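Milestone 3.1: sequence recovery, worked example.
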């Protein structure tokens, strides 16, 4: 094209130079599409006012409806077409808008506008579960999707990651097999939101490369307490390209400023019934209360010349790079600060694609990533009905879009001009290319030399299937290990075919750890081998035996910010104590929820009243992080006499939560047979218990209670 007067050689750089983003760019961009009905008449889609929205047009009041009723037909016709296919995976999700602000050091590593020092870029983040359908539960044992769309000055960049740093398979060609195996079984569509079934365990036990990721999903990471307490990972090795054109390998990490913490399994399961929307509800409520969610985006940086310095292949998505080997360099901070206006329009229609990258970011040859680059666009064509899904407001970049792509279903853009091809001389060559160079803004792929034979195969450097599973297991605390053993125990108990259970216990788990295999084997009455059966290549070699960063306990918040604490009250409660508890919690950034036997105003001992936030069964203990019991003789008598009142602290105790009782509150603990331990505090005043309460809640749970809690009824 170089000698064509209407092509690239005729251009001298970007043509949309004055385009800049701010944290509000996407909000402003969406505004033109918002529809607020307040103060407006009800009309048909053709704009005709509707006089009666209750009665169809009939031949006589008791007669048949007339075909002529265009108002009825339009309404019914639209309703009949409301549903679109749910996502084939990650169907259940919740999203929020936010802003990403780059730290000064970010621009050292990438020329992308999103990483310019101080640059604010609007974001939209969708969190999801993988296995369940759109109507399943939030707190299932599963991986969580963590997909971020950055509406940058240079176009949309999507970082489509998960809350775990590795994946189940190495090559995208196995993705349909994996998803078929984990999804509800084809003959009866059971089970929903669970991996505890034959097809999943059949597949993963035949695919040793999945061992490490399955281990992660058997850990408490699989039910994060909240979206704000989840880490996020880009998983694949990507590239960042700096202004000089130098490319470095990177792994992306989202580090939650709130720290990481999870549910325990029984609690997560109970929540399925008590509040199936727990995570999404909390995020939406927190954002509307101004309690925003925050993460730092960081990268592990690997210079190109160090590509082969690891015990594993950095192109293998079943491997993480231990943070002890390559620390995470923070590049910026994201704050989620605005709820979507409409679930369908934004959260359901948002279309992520790891193939959406911008200059300064590039792919690697990870075969899982390469396959994803095909799949996302393809699935969106079906789910969102054709190639014009890019014009749906939530998917539009905030940059101008001009190209020669035309037509198809539901085209919104009215392209002017006669020429829809390039080069052209009719429209003076517009829209023109921007030559691929840093100063011109055009996208340029890293100029990697590829000189290879065409081969359908896998590199021997991908043969290690177990060393990082072992690393993860070794890095867990005793309680975490116990939860993992119990998880394998439960999941395999749901597997009907004995040979699948045997395969997991005898051929997979021992390669991770002999003790793990023995303990799971004991639950199933299956003898585990005493030596690792896998080949040396499969066992891999890891120079690191432990990575403390892999334990959830490594990132406990230490503070009680954003924690939800139940304050149990009934008529006659000591209101001064309640007020003191609430204000102390507030001062720490936590929230005290007033929970009473009924929703009727609670009469305090001083004659004042208090409005409850919920009833005992409205916000049960599984929805709360800790329990406080305020004093007041009459209040405690009422709670003691109530089954729900006694059950509340019992359930919280079982789930290793901190419980503190002020004044007569200790009588409720006695009546509920609560075993006293370091996590059960009593005192005559709020001051007497609060500091210890705060310290213990900062550790998330009373882990030392675990052995004793196991001996108590569920
Ligand atoms: Fe995927 C959705 C994350 C491997 C094919 N994926 C999807 C979503 C997330 C991920 C977070 C939901 C996005 C949203 O909220 O809309 N997927 C991952 C990660 C992977 C991964 C972190 C491995 C590192 N995915 C993967 C492979 C393939 C796909 C190997 C196929 C080759 N993923 C899809 C998909 C989905 C999807 C079928 C379903 C809905 C959608 O894309 O938009 O194309």
């Amino acid at each position: 094209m170089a000698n064509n007067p209407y092509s690239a050689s005729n251009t001298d750089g970007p043509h949309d130079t004055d385009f800049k983003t701010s944290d509000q760019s996407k909000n402003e961009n969406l505004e033109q599409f918002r529809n607020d009905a307040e103060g407006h008449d009800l009309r048909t889609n053709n704009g005709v006012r509707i006089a009666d929205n209750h009665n169809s047009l009939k031949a006589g009041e008791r007669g048949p409806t007339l075909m002529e009723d265009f108002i009825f037909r339009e309404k019914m016709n639209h309703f009949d077409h409301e549903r679109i296919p749910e996502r084939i995976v990650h169907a259940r999700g919740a999203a929020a808008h936010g802003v990403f602000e780059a730290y000064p050091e970010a621009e050292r590593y990438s020329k992308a506008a999103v990483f310019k020092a101080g640059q604010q870029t609007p974001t939209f983040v969708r969190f999801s579960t993988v296995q369940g359908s759109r109507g399943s539960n939030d707190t299932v044992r599963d991986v969580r999707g963590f997909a971020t769309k950055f509406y940058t000055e240079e176009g949309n960049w999507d970082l489509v990651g998960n809350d775990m740093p590795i994946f189940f398979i190495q090559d995208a060609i196995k993705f349909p097999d994996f998803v078929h195996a984990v999804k509800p079984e084809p003959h009866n569509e059971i089970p929903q939101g669970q991996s505890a079934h034959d097809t999943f365990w059949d597949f993963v036990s035949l695919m040793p490369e999945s061992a490490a990721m399955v281990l992660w999903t058997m850990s408490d990471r699989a039910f994060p307490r909240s979206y704000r307490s989840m880490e996020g990972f880009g998983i694949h090795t990507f590239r960042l390209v700096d202004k000089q054109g130098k490319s470095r390998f990177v792994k992306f990490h989202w580090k939650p400023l709130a720290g990481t913490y999870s549910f325990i399994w029984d609690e997560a399961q109970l929540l399925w019934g008590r509040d199936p929307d727990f995570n999404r509800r909390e995020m939406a409520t927190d954002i509307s209360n101004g309690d925003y969610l925050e993460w730092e985006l960081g990268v592990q940086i690997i210079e190109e010349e160090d590509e082969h310095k690891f015990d594993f292949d950095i192109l293998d998505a079943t491997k993480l790079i231990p943070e002890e080997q390559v620390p995470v360099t923070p590049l910026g901070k994201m704050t989620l600060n605005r709820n979507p206006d409409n679930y369908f329009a934004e959260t359901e229609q948002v279309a992520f694609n790891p193939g959406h990258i911008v200059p300064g970011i590039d792919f690697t040859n990870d075969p899982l990533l390469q396959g994803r680059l095909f799949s996302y666009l393809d699935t969106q064509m079906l789910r969102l009905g054709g190639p014009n899904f890019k014009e749906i407001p939530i998917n539009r970049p905030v940059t101008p879009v001009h190209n020669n792509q035309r037509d198809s279903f539901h085209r919104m853009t009215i392209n002017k001009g006669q020429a829809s091809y390039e080069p052209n001389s009719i429209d003076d060559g517009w829209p023109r290319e921007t030559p691929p160079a840093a100063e011109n803004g055009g996208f340029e792929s890293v100029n990697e030399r590829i000189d290879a034979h065409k081969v359908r195969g896998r590199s021997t450097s991908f043969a290690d299937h177990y060393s990082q599973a072992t690393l993860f297991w070794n890095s867990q605390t005793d309680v975490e290990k116990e939860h993992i053993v119990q998880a394998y125990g439960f999941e395999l108990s749901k597997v009907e075919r004995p040979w699948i259970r045997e395969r997991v216990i005898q051929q997979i788990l021992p390669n991770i750890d002999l003790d793990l295999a023995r303990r799971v084997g004991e639950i199933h009455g299956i003898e585990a081998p005493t030596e690792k059966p896998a080949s040396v290549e499969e066992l891999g070699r890891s120079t690191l035996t432990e990575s403390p960063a892999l334990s959830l306990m490594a990132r406990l918040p230490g503070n009680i910010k954003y924690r939800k604490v139940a304050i149990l009250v009934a008529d006659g409660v000591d209101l001064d104590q309640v007020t003191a508890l609430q204000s102390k919690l507030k001062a720490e950034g936590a929230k005290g929820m007033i929970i009473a036997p009924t929703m009727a105003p609670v009469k305090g001992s001083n004659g004042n009243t208090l409005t409850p936030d919920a009833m005992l069964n409205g916000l049960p203990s599984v929805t709360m992080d800790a329990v406080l019991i305020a004093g007041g003789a009459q209040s405690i008598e009422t709670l003691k006499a109530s089954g729900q009142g006694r059950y509340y602290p019992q359930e919280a105790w079982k789930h290793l939560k901190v419980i503190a009782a002020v004044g007569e509150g200790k009588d409720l603990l006695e009546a509920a047979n609560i075993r006293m331990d370091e996590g059960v505090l009593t005192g005559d005043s709020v001051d007497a218990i609060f500091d210890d309460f705060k310290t213990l809640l900062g550790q998330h749970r009373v882990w030392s209670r675990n052995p004793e809690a196991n001996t108590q009824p569920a």
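Residues 205 and 504 are 6 Å apart (CA to CA). Residues 93-395 form a domain with the Catalase HpII,  Chain A, domain 1 fold (CATH 2.40.180.10).
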